[in-house]
Write a structure and sequence with these properties.
With 98 residues, this protein is of the alpha/beta class. 34% of the residues lie in helices and 11% in strands. The chain contains 2 helices and 3 strands. Strands 2-1-3 form a 3-stranded parallel beta sheet, with helices on one face. The radius of gyration is 17 Å and the shape is globular.
Length: 98
């Protein structure tokens, strides 16, 4: 029992340490290579879409994964393969050799 409590505390400390470095990146799955935090907010609604800015099938799978997770908002989020960013969209790009 003591070992279980110790491991739980150790995990919480390590999560808190990682979150201190980049609190947004620590909450995203899959973990992005970089995160650019700006001002303002983004509202997910019935017009939101995920734009995959890559022909790579792996990037498309990530877009579908994200759209599936966003179903918890109550909206069905379409995934669109495109070369252009859209309005009210989440854009995903695959950068080779990052």
């Amino acid at each position: 029992m003591k070992r279980c409590v110790f491991l739980s505390i150790a995990m919480l400390i390590s999560i808190g340490t990682f979150a201190g470095e980049n609190p947004i990146a620590s909450r995203l799955l899959p973990v992005p290579v970089s995160v650019q935090e700006g001002n303002g907010s983004f509202l997910v609604d019935g017009k939101t879409s995920v734009h995959v800015l890559s022909a790579d099938e792996g990037a498309n799978r990530v877009g579908k994964f994200l759209a599936e997770k966003l179903k918890t908002t109550g909206y069905s989020i379409p995934v669109i393969k495109t070369s252009a960013k859209g309005t009210n969209s989440i854009s995903l790009a695959l950068i080779q050799n990052a």
